[in-house]
Amino acid sequence: MGLVATRLTASLGLTLGLGFVFLPLGCGSGPLGNPRPRAHGSGDGPSVPAATVAALSACAEHGAARLTDTHYAIMFDVDVRADGRVDKAKVRESMIDDREIVSCMEDALRGMSLPGVVTPLRAAGPVYGGSVSPEGRTPLGHPAAAVAGAAVNLIPIVLVAAGVTIVVAVTAHVVEEAVEAIEKWPKEVEDKCYPRLYECLNNTSQPWWNRRRFGDRKECNACFRECLKDSGEWPMYKCPPPGYFPN
User: Which superkingdom is the protein from (predicted)?
Assistant: First the structure.
């Protein structure tokens, strides 16, 4: 397995962190030594949302039978906007030459939410003209404060389908527009909206009484933007928190 990790690293120019994914197969692996898909686990940096991991797994499962090798790796770059939303995903390097699988994974990454990448911007003094000290705010997600154009490596994902192992590495890039937008948001508005966003992302299913109007899933990113626009008022009608019922 060490040879596989070395080959993947050499082929893609991956970081040491990506190669490390293959090291703990003996104690952290699934049945028959297959590594479990990872998105939340030990390691530095934000992780890919569970729903996105599930979509990536579906891409692998649908196309693994067409692949001729047993181990692959693919690297993506994604652009993160001010609300944490990803609206652009593209392949940087790939060992997979199956366009259907690659396109499916791009679609899976596009539209996911990565608030843990953007939130540290609030702790960066230059974003606020140096008027707020980093000690006054506790960043969530990645421990290092992000800046426009910064690259944040997410925790790599290991997918296993039909005997094929695929490592998916994602690097998130904070777009310049994110900083410009965040500069316009007062801290007190952010402090009201961000907790609601995290709460929503952890419970994206609409309650039964709201599904006829808004469907089965909450649009957390849209509700977050509405909250910022409305000075911190969370749209309960569209993204109700658990236990909430309108009067």
Answer: Bacteria
